[in-house]
Amino acid sequence: MSASLRAQCVLLLGLLWSSLPAASSCRIRIPPHDQVARVARFVAHQCDWASMATISSHKPVVGQPFSNAFSVSDGPEGSGSGVPYLYLTRMEVSVQDLQMNPQASLSMSLAQTEYCRQQGFDPQSPLCAHIILSGSVLEVNGTEAEFAKKALFSRHPEMIDWPSDHNWFFAKFNITQVWVLDYFGGVKTVTPEEYFQATPHRKHH
Amino acid sequence: MSASLRAQCVLLLGLLWSSLPAASSCRIRIPPHDQVARVARFVAHQCDWASMATISSHKPVVGQPFSNAFSVSDGPEGSGSGVPYLYLTRMEVSVQDLQMNPQASLSMSLAQTEYCRQQGFDPQSPLCAHIILSGSVLEVNGTEAEFAKKALFSRHPEMIDWPSDHNWFFAKFNITQVWVLDYFGGVKTVTPEEYFQATPHRKHH
């Protein structure tokens, strides 16, 4: 292949690659697995959605666990707060559960990104880092609702146009315990204090 | 650009494209949203992992909902049974919950595939089809364990080498109720009978 042909192909390939949704995941750099709180903050910021477990308030499964998917954001790209914010409506089945019992659990996994596939890690492998947050879902207002709006709408622009008659409100996941599966040897726990003190990304000087 | 250059670039781009994990999702063809049971079977077969909600048996969250990620398979590619099979160890935190209370919920979303991103559907949009299974997790043996092994190991080859001292066993999710979010208008329910009678893929004649 001539140098000019190679150059033009590289350019074309570059353009195609940068146009793929998966491209951003090429930049995923997970913190070292022994820096557990940093890994937790990293996963919480990388994931645009989470699975939420509630105690069902709906027949025929009243009192049973119920798993459902929700979009989340802990802040605009690159400035995560660690707090998963949600945009909810009381018309939603899991949100109705939360009104009876606000206790919930959120799980987020790098299987939701291209990372685990690119690394060849099975979704159930501890190397395919995933976290579980325990706590409760609380409505937020005022300045925190403003931050939640910025966090969610910047990463989920479709939300801006969701039907207003659904009475959407902003909520946060109030974390009481963090569980991390990021390496062999079983689940590790992180306190909310350790979690919020951690810096998900290496600081640049 | 010369014809030969264009031809060679197209070839290169094709090779790159076909080498991407995302490529398979280009073939995703979801059944019509009003064929709810078919959509449920389709999502259950497309997803290689699921989020499982259990009632926690672990301090400090005993009795609270707990969400966690597990690899699943309802059958080898293209021949799904509708039954999500799991490969579990009693060393795992959620499996320990199940030993106290086998009631659980599995959620699977096309947000786990390239489909929703490619279609421009937010993970929380009902158009980003997701399903919730209610029921319980039961160990399987004999011929069903043989099918579970084929179903799981064909789609999760890494499992073959997981440490034998973890005493892995095969289990199935015994479905009592199916919840489907695949369009506007709220959650729809499907009975296990309707679910297992449905054909996820259009039959070829």
Write the layout of secondary structure elements.
The structure is a homodimer of 205-residue chains.
Chain A: H1 3-18, H2 36-46, E1 49-55, E2 65-71, E3 85-88, H3 93-100, E4 103-109, H4 115-119, E5 130-139, H5 142-155, E6 169-181, E7 188-190, H6 192-197
Antiparallel strand pairs in A: 1-2, 1-4, 3-6, 4-5, 5-6, 6-7
Walk me through what this model shows.
The structure is a homodimer of 205-residue chains. Chain A is α+β, with helices and mostly antiparallel strands and 205 residues long. Chain A contains six helices and seven strands. Chain A has helices spanning 3-18, 36-46, 93-100, 115-119, 142-155, 192-197, and strands spanning 49-55, 65-71, 85-88, 103-109, 130-139, 169-181, 188-190. The longest helix of chain A is centred in the N-terminal third of the chain and has 16 residues, at 3-18. Chain A is globular and about 45 Å long. The termini of chain A are far apart. Residues 9-26 of chain A have low confidence and may be disordered.
Give structural attributes.
homodimer, 205 residues, alpha+beta, 6 helices
Short characterization:
The structure is a homodimer of 205-residue chains. With 205 residues, the first copy, chain A, is of the alpha+beta class.
